[in-house]
């Protein structure tokens, strides 16, 4: 902020908000819409950056009668209320537990314990499901944050096709109404990378110079 | 008189009228009208996603303060951030890519392949108790370092194998699984070695961070007690 250029009030407000976040031991995200950049930070240090392909506000609108939704104020700190990091989890449970075999009871067919022999058998790990490249998180301010690798088509034809599809889903009782979402488009790999960070309590600082 | 035979040209029969053509055309037009009508009705019912640009709306925090006050506020905020900024040696763990970095004075001095938590939830069939195998996120501190660590296996280690946890604590000790060194980062989470080197780089642990032998020795030597660990 040094120099002769007068400081931007929005930038100063964002710095103050970040100072508040950096005091906590949690990881937080910083979204800069102008640079199309999402930074993963802790204690004011950038741990990783993600280049966004786009940032839009997506809202469901009747075709040809679109009205632009309100825009969330910035700078601001958004907090994830519930995200896929909370809900997208695999649960495993053995059906029942058996008593532990005593050392002298162990049969020869049992796998050797790690370290018991020079050739250590590698256990087959439980396969971890790949996170999806498109998901929504609910924010405490009532908005949704939608992270996706593919933005819905916005051409007239594409919108019409999407409208027909959604109409057909609604006729079959499958239609869904989503609240407006700040939508971050990024590569599928990047979308998967931040999937686990989208869990309750994660803070997202939105900065912008105006 | 010539008696040439009379040449008669064969009378061509008029082509049969294709009366079915208009019927087919009418049918196709009807189908088209029906399709378009249905599509129009469905499109009217549907609510597709419409994009609008993300524009800045000033929040209440942005006021027309005078320039000198703004400068003072900016400097104060930057000082506060600088105060908590990690200094010296610290560790960064990327739990998605399974990479650990040791940073010294802002420079990465070691990058290692590690293994982190699966994120899977384990449920105890006896009482419904659950454990989440997440590597914790955020800042932690190396609380203690141990050579030749012994692992006191917690209940979940038995439940996962379908075995009732033993009551005798002596049946819980395991001096092989953690490798030669361990850096404890709180709440039972440890940076340690592994017997299963081929699983490095994958999300296979119960929340701890596993390293290969050489990387573990390097981190153990270069990260003193008190080293900050940033996990994301």
Task: Please give a structural write-up.
Chain A is 19% helix and 26% strand. Chain A is α+β, with helices and mostly antiparallel strands and 210 residues long. The model of chain A is unreliable at 106-118 (pLDDT under 50). Chain B has a domain at 83-231: L,D-transpeptidase catalytic domain-like, CATH 2.40.440. Chain B contains four helices and 16 strands. The relative contact order of chain B is 0.15. The model of chain B has no long low-confidence stretch (mean pLDDT 89). Chains A and B meet through α1, β3, β4, β5 and β7 of A and α1, β1, β2, α2 and β6 of B.
Overall pLDDT confidence of chain A: 83
| Beta-strand proportion of chain B | 25-35%
Largest β sheet strand count, sense and barrel closure of chain A: 9 strands, mixed
Low-confidence residue ranges of chain B: none
Number of strands of chain A: 11
The number of helical runs of chain B is: 4
Key attributes of the depicted protein:
heterodimer; A: 210 residues; alpha+beta; L,D-transpeptidase catalytic domain-like; 11 strands; B: 232 residues; ten-stranded mixed β-sheet
Provide a brief overview of the structure.
The complex is a heterodimer of chains A (210) and B (232). With 210 residues, chain A is an alpha+beta fold. Chain A is built from four helices and eleven strands; from the N terminus they run αββββββαβββαβαβ.
Strand-helix topology:
The complex is a heterodimer of chains A (210) and B (232).
Chain A: H1 9-22, E1 28-32, E2 37-42, E3 45-51, E4 54-60, E5 73-74, E6 76-82, H2 84-87, E7 91-92, E8 135-139, E9 144-148, H3 156-171, E10 181-185, H4 188-193, E11 203-206
Parallel strand pairs in A: 1-11, 9-10
Antiparallel strand pairs in A: 1-2, 2-3, 4-10, 6-8, 6-11, 8-9
Chain B: H1 20-45, E1 49-53, E2 57-58, H2 67-84, E3 89-94, E4 99-104, E5 107-117, E6 121-123, E7 130-132, E8 138-141, E9 144-147, E10 151-152, H3 155-159, E11 173-174, E12 181-184, E13 190-192, E14 203-205, E15 209-211, H4 213-222, E16 228-231
């Amino acid at each position: 902020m040094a120099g002769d250029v007068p400081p931007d009030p929005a930038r100063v407000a964002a710095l103050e908000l970040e100072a508040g976040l950096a005091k906590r031991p949690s990881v937080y995200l910083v979204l800069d819409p102008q640079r199309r950049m999402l930074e993963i930070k802790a204690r004011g240090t950038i741990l990783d950056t993600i280049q966004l392909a786009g940032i839009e506000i997506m809202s469901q609108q009747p075709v040809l009668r679109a009205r632009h939704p309100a825009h969330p104020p910035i700078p601001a700190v958004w907090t994830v209320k519930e995200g896929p990091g909370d809900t997208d989890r695999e649960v495993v449970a053995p059906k029942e537990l058996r008593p532990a075999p005593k050392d002298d009871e162990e049969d020869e067919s049992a796998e050797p314990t790690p370290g018991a022999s020079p050739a250590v058998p590698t256990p087959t790990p439980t396969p971890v499901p790949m996170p999806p490249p498109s998901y929504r998180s609910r924010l405490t301010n009532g908005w949704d944050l939608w992270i996706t690798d593919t933005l819905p088509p916005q051409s007239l034809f594409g919108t019409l096709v999407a409208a027909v599809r959604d109409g057909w889903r609604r006729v079959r009782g499958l239609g869904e109404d989503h609240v407006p979402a700040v939508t971050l488009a990024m590569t599928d790999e990047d979308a998967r990378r931040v999937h686990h960070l989208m869990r309750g309590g994660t803070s997202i600082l939105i900065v912008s110079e105006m | 008189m010539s008696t040439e035979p009379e040449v008669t040209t064969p009378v061509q029969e008029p082509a049969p009228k294709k009366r079915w053509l208009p019927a087919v055309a009418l049918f196709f037009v009807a189908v088209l009208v029906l399709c378009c009508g249905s599509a129009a009705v469905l499109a009217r019912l549907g609510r597709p996603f419409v994009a609008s640009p993300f524009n800045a709306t000033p929040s209440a925090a942005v006021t027309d303060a005078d320039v000198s006050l703004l400068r003072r506020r900016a400097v104060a905020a930057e000082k506060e951030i600088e105060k908590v900024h990690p200094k010296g040696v610290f560790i960064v763990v990327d739990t998605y890519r399974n990479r650990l970095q040791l940073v010294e004075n802002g420079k990465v001095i070691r990058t290692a392949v590690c293994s982190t938590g699966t994120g899977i939830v384990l449920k105890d069939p006896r009482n419904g108790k659950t454990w989440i195998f997440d590597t914790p996120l955020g800042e932690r501190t190396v609380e203690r370092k141990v050579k030749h660590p012994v692992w006191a296996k917690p209940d979940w280690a038995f439940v996962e194998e379908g075995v009732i946890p033993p009551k005798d604590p002596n049946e819980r000790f395991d001096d092989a699984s953690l490798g030669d060194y361990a850096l404890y980062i709180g709440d039972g989470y440890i940076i340690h070695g592994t017997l299963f080197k081929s699983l490095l780089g994958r999300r296979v642990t119960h929340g701890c961070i596993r390293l290969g032998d050489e990387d573990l020795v390097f981190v153990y030597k270069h990260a003193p007690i008190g080293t900050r660990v940033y996990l994301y």
